[in-house]
Amino acid sequence: MSKQINFTIVPEDPVDAERAERLYANFCAVAHTPFDMTLTFCDVRPLSERDVQQAEQSQTVRAPVVARIALPFGVVPGLIAALQEQLRTLQEAQAGNTEPTWPKGQLH
User: Fold this and answer.
1) What is the pLDDT of residue 15?
2) Bridge partners (DSSP) listed for residue 36
3) What span, in angstroms and rounded, lies between the C-alpha atoms of 24 and 54?
4) Distances (CA, A) of 79 to 24, 74, 83
């Protein structure tokens, strides 16, 4: 006989909040294999004159990868739902010119 256990997964922040790592990315490339979906986050910074000249020739701009995360397909629908809920909350707050009231607890 198997026993069912209900649980919630929560991120464990470091004891020293100032040492908590936070990565910034303003670009995300999405790709997939038959097994998973990969999100590649990059930090695209303002281009220098040299960068612009190179981009004109190659039609590409290189940006440093901040993080590359492979997700099994089973996680993707929950991620999409959580992102949609966060975006909806932000848009409602902006439309009413009020402070956002973020949903309580973890969204997954």
Assistant:
1) 78
2) 72
3) 25
4) 18, 10, 6
Is 83 part of a structural domain of the chain? yes
CA distance 75 to 21: 23
- What pLDDT, on a 0 to 100 scale, did the predictor assign at position 10? 81
56 located within any domain: yes
| Residue span of the structural domain in which 76 resides | 22-95
Number of structural domains in the chain = 1
What is residue 101's predicted lDDT score, i.e. its pLDDT? 62
* 37 neighbors 28 (Cβ within 8 angstroms): no
Q: Is residue 13 in a domain?
A: no
Q: Per the domain annotation, does 82 fall within a domain?
A: yes
Instruction: Give the pLDDT score at 103.
Output: 57
Residues contacting 79, CB < 8 A, separation 6+: 71
**pLDDT at res. 108:** 47
Kindly give the parts of the chain with pLDDT less than 70.
98-108
